[in-house]
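re the bet — no i am not wrong, look at it urself. input seq straight from the record:
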Amino acid sequence: LGPTRDYTQVELSYTDGIFLGIDLPLRISGNHQGTPGCVLVGPAGALALDRGVIRAERHVHMHPNDAAHYGVSDGDHMKLRIDGPCGMTFDRMRVRVHPRVKLEVHIDTDEGNACHLGSATGMDLIK
């Protein structure tokens, strides 16, 4: 969980959305316009959200130096090639540039399972 923000967001995989009966919009984190809500229930109580349930768009966080290395800017899209027995290439990997982050790719459980990420032998970001 985290980082701490001034809003609550729930990110689910498409499989989770199908199981829960929620039509998940594909969104970049923080874009909640027109998204469904839900009720989160846990041992300390419940929290009702009127919006903020999304399927997060796959993305890569980059420091400005990394963005310069790859020749991309915030909001651009790249490809992520995963090598291995179940290798595949993901299109439309959204670039998110910020000076306080390190190079890090975010894909969801469905995407990780599809390429059997645990058996990957290499990965490349492609402009």
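see?? The chain has a mean pLDDT of 95. told u. also The chain has three helices and ten strands. so pay up
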